[in-house]
Amino acid sequence: LYPIVLTVMCLGIVSGLLVYVVPKVVEVFESAKGKLPLMTRVLIAFSDFLRDYGLWLVVALVLGGFGFARWLRNPDARRRFHAVLLTLPLVGRVVRGFNTARFTRTFSILTGSAVPVLEALRIAGQVVSNVPMREAVEAAAQRVREGAPIGRSLGQSKVFPPMTIHLISSGESSGKLEDMLERAAVSQE
User: Fold this and answer.
1) End-to-end CA, the chain
2) pLDDT-above-70 percentage for the chain
3) Which listed site, 3, 90, 94, 138, has its alpha carbon 20 to 30 Å from 83?
4) Cα separation of 188 and 166, whole Å?
């Protein structure tokens, strides 16, 4: 919540500066009748655009956000969007790390509380917010139910970080799954 509030405040302040302060400064530049640098002309043009079309831009952004939220209600659209998020350079790592941390932390707590592994895997999969990752956990739970190791089952989807898969496999083979899940969670956090 804090980064969102901070971002909104920063955008509000910059927009206010562009709409109210830059036009006052432009008057000073116009009276000097000198040739302005390219970046200054771009800033002035952007300020003029915001002053002339800022309200329409806000309306378009609100309508676009509403339409996007409505589009995401469709499960197939949400799956495609989440799959695209995983492929983006920086965003994909953050989404993957966040969901992996939540999954491994929950799985660790559940296995430490003597919840059966299959039930713990199913419950931990429900805390994953990214649809392709949640589906990968569900598929892994099915393979584990059939007798496959947890690490290998999760690794087949290729959506979880290799280090997490390695730690889970190591914990599974050494009998210290809870500890290795905890280490994986700390690593991803």
Assistant:
1) 17
2) 98
3) 3
4) 13
pLDDT at 130: 93
**Cα–Cα distance, 180 to 150 (Å, whole number):** 12
Helix axis angle for 22-32 and 38-71, nearest 10°, is 150
Q: How far is CA 189 from CA 29, 92, 98, 152, in A?
A: 50, 15, 7, 22
Q: What band does 126 get if pLDDT is binned at 50, 70 and 90?
A: very high
- The pLDDT value recorded for residue 86 is 92
133 membership: H or E segment, kind and range:
helix 131-145
CA–chain centroid gap for 3, Å, is 13
Lookup result for tokens 């805390």: 127
Residue type, 122: R
The Cα–Cα gap between 183 and 179 comes to 6
Minimal CA–CA distance to 145: which of 127, 171, 119?
A: 119
The predicted structure's pLDDT at residue 109: 93
